[in-house]
Amino acid sequence: MNTFNIEDHPHKRFNPLTNDWILVSPHRAKRPWQGQVEKAIVDERPAYDPSCYLCAGNERAGGKKNPDYKGTFVFTNDFSALLADTPEGEIDDGSLFQAKSESGICKVICFSENHSLTIPEMEVSDIRSVVDVWCEQFEELGSNELINYVQIFENKGAIMGCSNPHPHGQIWSSSNVPVEPAKESVTQKEYFDKNEKTLLEVYVKAELEKKERLVAENEHFVALVPFWAVWPFETMIVSKRAVQNIVQLTDGEKTGLADIYKQLTVKYDNLFETSFAYSAGLHQAPTDGKDYPEWHLHMHFYPPLLRSATVKKFMVGYEMLATPQRDITAEQAAKRLRDLSDIHYKNNK
Fold first, then answer.
1. Among all residues, which ones are annotated catalytic?
2. Quick check: helix, strand or coil at residue 149?
3. How far apart are the first and last CA of the chain?
4. Cβ distance 274 to 309 under 8 Å?
5. Residue 312 above 90 pLDDT?
6. Which CATH superfamily is domain 42-342 in?
7. Model-level pTM?
8. Which residue has the higher pLDDT, 69 or 61?
9. How far apart are CA 239 and CA 260, in angstroms?
10. How many CB atoms neighbour CB 81 within 10 A?
11. Helices (H), 76-212
12. Element housing 272 (H / E)
């Protein structure tokens, strides 16, 4: 009988942050690809677009006019998914029919007045301004007695549902902790109570020793492909020092976060020489006034591209009905990203 080899044989991998398992089928990556492969669409945009509702000085979809801003600009979403004035109420029609009202505040953050840019094309100093806004908004929203969780995220690319290419992100803050952070709260607390260290502090230390799944690092942060990654080039940015939220970062760490954000996204763009699509978001402790020593700041990146600039991985069939699955291993994905240049492909031509 052959000896089990994690790089060749089907196996399951455990995600300690969510208590879930994924199926990895590395042998399938060796099969020939006869599907669709297309060249990247050239993404050239002007620095200012008069039809863009996020550009400085333009009228937004809701009828309000943007100021002539430079750098970052924050405003309450004109079409918020959560509303601060939602009346309290619930439906309890037996255990199978339950609903509860949910309140919250949603913000939009324009990263730059320059319509043509994305994070990997911005200067670290300008990305640091974005990090500073994240900190300000986390503190402001988190101090609101209505808000118990602040979810900061960015959708990049039309295939990830981004309705406007202008460089921007969002914040949805809610009265309850959302599903994914709630899962991570449970697992991190269980680990911390047992080991007196955060789960991710121990995990990052182990990954730095193994170096198999590292993509990039600096003094304060590491970018890696998690051992349990589901998406083909899924990554995670984790602080080397255990902090509960971004407000607790030092000045140097905030710059470090901006730097690793750029490093990672440059590699993403270089992978298929396209403006690489992803959904990314910070996970951090709830803002209900309690202390969460088990929480460790990190940022998830979920990109859909699989084989080229246009071939996307879909969660279908077995993955929707049974277990998430991937073919390319986390180690293979990390090596491909790690070996890419740190210089954006547009600057190499």
1. 168
2. strand
3. 51
4. yes
5. no
6. HIT-like (3.30.428.10)
7. 0.94
8. 69
9. 10
10. 11
11. 124-142, 179-195, 199-210
12. helix 251-272
Closest to 16 measured CA to CA, from 316, 296, 347: 296
How far apart are the C-alpha atoms of 254 and 94, rounded to whole Å? 48
- Beta partners for 20? 15
Neighbours of 32 (CB within 10 A): 5
**Residue 273 and residue 94: Cα distance in Å, rounded?**
53
The backbone region for 92, taken as left when phi is positive above 0, alpha when psi lies in -120 to 50, beta otherwise, is beta
Domain map (residue ranges) of the chain: 42-342
| Dist CA 228 CA 17 (whole Å) | 10
Question: Both tokens of residue 337?
Answer: 């990203």
* Rounded Cα–Cα distance for residues 247 and 251 (Å): 10
The amino acid sitting at 324 is P
Instruction: Give the chain's radius of gyration (CA, Å).
Output: 21
Q: How far apart are CA 26 and CA 328, in angstroms?
A: 6
CA angle 340, 268, 149 (to 5 degrees): 135
C-alpha distances in Å from residue 198, one per residue of 203, 293, 298: 9, 8, 12
Q: Is the pLDDT of residue 181 over 70?
A: yes
Beta strands in 34-157 (DSSP E): 73-76, 90-92, 98-100, 104-110, 149-156
Whether 224 contacts 306, CB under 8 Å: no
**DSSP run (H or E) holding 319:** helix 318-321
pLDDT (0 to 100) of residue 43: 67
Contact 108, 52 (CB under 8 A): no
- Give 85's contacts (C-beta < 8 A, 6+ positions apart): 103
Token reading at 264: 């990672």
State the pLDDT at residue 281.
98
